[in-house]
Write a structure and sequence with these properties.
Order of helices and strands: HEHEHEHEEHEE
Radius of gyration: 21 Å
Distance between the termini: 30 Å
Structural class: alpha+beta
Strand content: 15-25%
Strand order of the largest sheet: 1-2-3-4-5
Number of helices: 5
Helix content: 10-25%
Shape: globular
């Protein structure tokens, strides 16, 4: 959607995601396309208005490939897999991922529905306290994510408008001033 607010992750979450991406990129089949390439990919999917550049984190090829760039994407596009990372530092015991808690957007689910098994969620476990004795990742299609899902809840993330003075002020409500017992209607 045009004008959609971008939500930023906390420093801790961003660091966890960076570490997970670094781990993922140790496998040469994974790459992070640059901004121009991501935009071209969205054009090729044909739903640029439905998905954004943040709807996937990386791409995966069947075999290691030279750097994937916008002007050479058409040939690779039909075989690319699109990767959305979900990363945790929690001790997850094995590939069943029991106890792995993550958030996902409706855009991610919609892109997964659109692309089928070409869109994969990469569940990256950074902790080594597991049956493998080292960090690992599990790649799952949306169908498999839904099969494994125990509970799902919807959460709204909200950013207030910054142009209230141009649209009639803040509207109805109250301001409560702490330190005295007064309140001011908006």
């Amino acid at each position: 959607m045009a004008g959609e607010s971008k939500f930023t992750k906390s420093r801790s979450n961003a660091g966890t995601e960076r570490e997970g991406l670094g781990l993922l990129l140790t496998d040469p089949r994974f790459q992070v396309p640059n901004l121009a390439t991501k935009r071209r990919i969205l054009e090729l999917i044909g739903k640029t208005e439905s998905f954004g550049i943040q709807t996937f984190d990386a791409v995966m090829t069947a075999e290691p490939a030279p750097p994937i760039v916008a002007d050479k994407i058409e040939g690779l596009f039909p075989t690319l897999r699109f990767i959305e990372m979900k990363t945790t530092r929690k001790a997850i015991q094995n590939a069943s991922l029991h106890g792995f808690f993550f958030g996902a957007t409706e855009r991610e689910y919609e892109m997964a529905r659109t692309l089928g098994d070409r869109y994969l969620f990469a569940f990256i476990v950074l902790n080594s306290a597991n049956e493998f004795g080292r960090p690992f990742a599990v790649l799952l299609s949306l169908e498999e994510v839904e099969r494994r899902t125990q509970k799902r809840r919807i959460q709204y993330q909200v950013n207030f408008r910054s142009d209230l003075t141009s649209v009639g002020g803040p509207g109805e409500g109250w301001v409560v001033l702490f330190g005295d017992e007064s309140h001011i209607p908006l």
